[in-house]
Automatic annotation (TrEMBL), chains A, B:
<feature type="domain" description="HTH marR-type">
    <location>
        <begin position="10"/>
        <end position="139"/>
    </location>
</feature>
<dbReference type="Pfam" id="PF12802">
    <property type="entry name" value="MarR_2"/>
</dbReference>
<keyword id="KW-0805">Transcription regulation</keyword>
<keyword id="KW-0804">Transcription</keyword>
<dbReference type="InterPro" id="IPR023187">
    <property type="entry name" value="Tscrpt_reg_MarR-type_CS"/>
</dbReference>
<keyword id="KW-0238">DNA-binding</keyword>
<dbReference type="InterPro" id="IPR036390">
    <property type="entry name" value="WH_DNA-bd_sf"/>
</dbReference>
<dbReference type="GO" id="GO:0003700">
    <property type="term" value="F:DNA-binding transcription factor activity"/>
</dbReference>
<protein>
    <submittedName>
        <fullName>DNA-binding MarR family transcriptional regulator</fullName>
    </submittedName>
</protein>
<dbReference type="InterPro" id="IPR039422">
    <property type="entry name" value="MarR/SlyA-like"/>
</dbReference>
<dbReference type="GO" id="GO:0006950">
    <property type="term" value="P:response to stress"/>
</dbReference>
<dbReference type="GO" id="GO:0003677">
    <property type="term" value="F:DNA binding"/>
</dbReference>
<dbReference type="InterPro" id="IPR000835">
    <property type="entry name" value="HTH_MarR-typ"/>
</dbReference>
<dbReference type="InterPro" id="IPR036388">
    <property type="entry name" value="WH-like_DNA-bd_sf"/>
</dbReference>
Amino acid sequence: MPKDRLSDADYEALSNLRYTLRRFMDFSTSAAHQEGLPAQQHQALLAIRGYRGEEAMTVGKLADQLLIAPHSATELVGRLVAAGYVTRQVDPADRRRQTLALTDKAHAILERLTAIHLTEIREMAPRLIDILRALDVTR
Amino acid sequence: MPKDRLSDADYEALSNLRYTLRRFMDFSTSAAHQEGLPAQQHQALLAIRGYRGEEAMTVGKLADQLLIAPHSATELVGRLVAAGYVTRQVDPADRRRQTLALTDKAHAILERLTAIHLTEIREMAPRLIDILRALDVTR
DNA sequence: GCAAATACATCGTAATACGACATAAATCAA
DNA sequence: TTGATTTATGTCGTATTACGATGTATTTGC
């Protein structure tokens, strides 16, 4: 029971959803760049900071969170360490693992970025919910 | 009145939001690839199809929709035309403009992709709305 | 009818995720 | 315990794609 046929309104609503998401992503990328961070590095910092409150993030778990291959996470972390945003140290419990932590510099930047993101999201949310409703209506 | 301070829960909720969005994007990218389409080409087809129901899309308006530079849209359209998904012809009303239209092949693929996207969105929506609520609660 | 603006196009470049491959540590079976 | 397997991370070359710089054609404003 997928449903009848797709209407022009379906395509339009889906297109609008993607446009809204793109604008959010674009806002986010710009905000990160203004803080001197590539978007993916910002996401890495957020994933580390937001990981179940405050558990120990590792390279592999970061890869899971960001939906990238483990070795891509390795490279990303390498850039973050080089830029002074993250420290990496061997996990004593399993010496194959590298635990990651944010530096003060990263905490400061991430706080600013998170604040403006919350503001932006609160502005975007009603529009987003309207679009989701439009898509569900056709159900 | 931005508000007090950011809590662990704020970071976690924002991180969860991004993770949910990434999974949707990842789903979408994979679905497009299974149809032989790079994600950005899929978005272009959707933007052309969904543009206010059925108006004439142009290279420039596509750039606006995709939030890319006009010349990037040119290149993207070039790839779409080469792959047989889009036809491009001079707009008689303004011969600087190129109007874009989908081929039957593109319509067929886009219909399949849109159908499964709607299904996926309906599955994701409740989770998404919960997260948005969590972010607003802290308001 | 000419300057400015608009729309699209071309080419070389840079960023980054990936594939292929490699290393080290932990686990498990005999 | 040792050796095979799995897990976690790392290295290097490559490919994709958006961009900057720049160029051409068309339209518009005065």
